Amino acid sequence: MTILYMRSFIFFIFYCFALTVTAQKIISDNLVQKNVVEYQKTEFDIEASIPFVNPYDQQEIVLDMVIKSPSGKSLTLPCYFLSGDKSKSFWKARFAPQETGAYSYNFQFKKAGKVVAKSKPKSFSSAVSQNDGFLHTHDYWTLRFDSGKPFRGIGENIGWEPRSFENPKWTFDYLLPTLSSNGANFFRLWMCPWSLPVAWKNVKHTKRYTNSDKYFNEGGIKRMDELVELSDSLGLHFMLSIDYHGAFIPAAEWKTNNYNKLNGGVATTPTDFFQMPEAKAMYKNKLRYLIARWGYSPAIGAWEFFNEIDNAVFTSKDSVLIPHHLITQWHDEMSTYLKEHDPYKHIVTTSISHRDIKGMNELPNIDLNQKHIYNHTNLIAGAIQEYTELYHKPYVIGEFGYDWNWDNVKPEVGPQFDFDYKRGLWYGMFSSTPILPMTWWWEFFDERNMTPYFRGVRMISDEMLAAGQGSFESVKVSALPLESYAVRCGDTYFVYLLNNSQNKISSDVTLTIAKTGSFQCKSFDPQTLVFNDLKSIDVHENELILQNVQLEKEHEIIHIFKVETSQKTVSKQQ
Hints:
It is a single chain. This protein is α+β, with helices and mostly antiparallel strands. The chain folds into three domains: about 25-125, Immunoglobulins (Immunoglobulin-like); about 145-470, Glycosidases (TIM Barrel); about 475-574, Immunoglobulin-like (Sandwich), CATH 2.60.40.1500. It contains twelve helices and 29 strands. Helix 2 runs parallel beside helix 3. The chain is globular, with a radius of gyration of 27 Å.
C-alpha cells in the first residue's frame, strides 16, 4: 500500500506540473494589417492563457516580441496588456519597422525573468516608406532622421489642454493643426493630473478625465492614443515630459501622487521615490508601458523625464530638499533602462529651470541637456554655447519667455512678449542647438496671432539645411550698434541683424568670409516673408562689407550671401 500510495502521489505531482505548464501558453498571435510599411505602425494581437496578479508589473510578468530584422539585427519589443484575466488574456504589440525586407519574429512570456511560453516563429515583409523615420541626435546643430535627413525643431510649448477654468478652445485638436499649418514641426508638453494623466489615479482641474482605480488611467491612455495619431498625421514631433516638478513637492501634488503610500504607492516622501528599489520598479513599469504602447511613433521626438526637476530638489531659498546624488543616480538608472528597452532609441532628456543638478549634465544616456530661461532671453545664445562647450552634447532651451509669472502676462505688455518671442527663436536659429528655444504662454500668443511668425523662421531653417546639407559653422560678424549673428551653411552665409533699441539705427555689416570672390545677396523680412535681391558684393581680404543697413526700432532682418554661380563654375574648372 505504501509503494502504491507513493506511486500515486508522484503521478499526481507530475500531473499537476504538466497541467501547470500546459496552462501557460500563447493561444494565438495575429498580424492585424497585412501591408507592413517601414516607419509605420504595425499591430499584432496576442491571446494567452498565463496566470498573473498584475499584468503591468514587469517583475512578475512580461510579454516581448523577439524580432530579427532584415539586416540580422536582434530586437526586443515590449508588448502591453489589453484585457482579460489569468485564464485568458489579450495583449498587443505595436511595431514600426526601421528597415525594409523580411523580418522574423515570435512572442515570449516571462515570469520572474524566466521564459514560460513561446509562440511559433513567423515572418512578415516591410515595404519601403516615403517617410524619414525616427529622430536621433547627430551634432550640436541638428538631429537626424533614420533616413539621414537633417532636422531642426521649430515650435513652442503646448504644455496641456485647457483646464476646467480655462478657455476650452485650446485643445490639441485646435493647436496642433495651427502649428503645423504655420510651419512649426515641434512642440513640448506635459503628462500631469489635468492632461494626459496616464499614470495618475487622481485627476484635478479637468472635466476631460476622471479618477480611476486602474493601474493606468483609461482616459489618459485614450487621449494619448489620439495625440500620437494626430501628431503623426500632421508631421509634428514632440518632447513628452513624463513627470513635472510639482508632483514631487510635499506642499503641492505629492499628496495625490500615485507613488505616495497614501495612494497605494510605496514611497512616504519624494526622497523615497528617488532611492527606493520598489519605487524605481514602479516607475520602470510606466516607462515600459510608454515604450510598448507609443514607442512605435516617430512623432515622439524625445522622452523627457522631468520638467524642471530642480524646483523639486530646492526650496525657494535654494536649500536642498532632495540630495543631488539621488537625483543624478535615478536619472542614470532610468535613462539606461530606456536605452536598453526602447528598440527605436528615441532621444532621452530631462530639464531644469535654472539650477544645475551636480553630475546630471554628464550622464551618458541623457542625449541632450536642457534648461529654461525666463526674463533673460538675451542670455539664450550664450547659455547654449557655454553648455555645449562644457559638456560636449547638444543643449536645448526647452522653455523661454519675457516673464515666468502668469500675473504679469497681460495685453498691455503684449508687444514686449511678442518682441521677446521673435528674438528668442532667432537666437536659437543662429546658435548650436538642434531644437530652437520654445516659448511658453501658448494661449496668450495664440490670442495675439503670433503663430504665423513660425512661417518665416521655417523658411530660413529650410534654406539653411538645404544649403549646407545639415552642416553649420558659426562665423564672425560685426554690425554695432545692431546685434548680429552669422552662420555658414555650405557656400551660403546667413546673417541675423536685430535693432534691440527704441530708435532707428543705420550700420555697416562686416562679415568674415572663407574665400574671395563675388557673392549674391538678398534680404528677408520675417514679418512680411518678403525676399529682396540686393546688388552683388565683392569680398576683399576675407571681409564682405554691406553698407548702410537701416532697421527700425525692435526690427530684425536676415541677409543671405551666396557664392555667385559663375564663381562656383570657375572654381570647379580650376
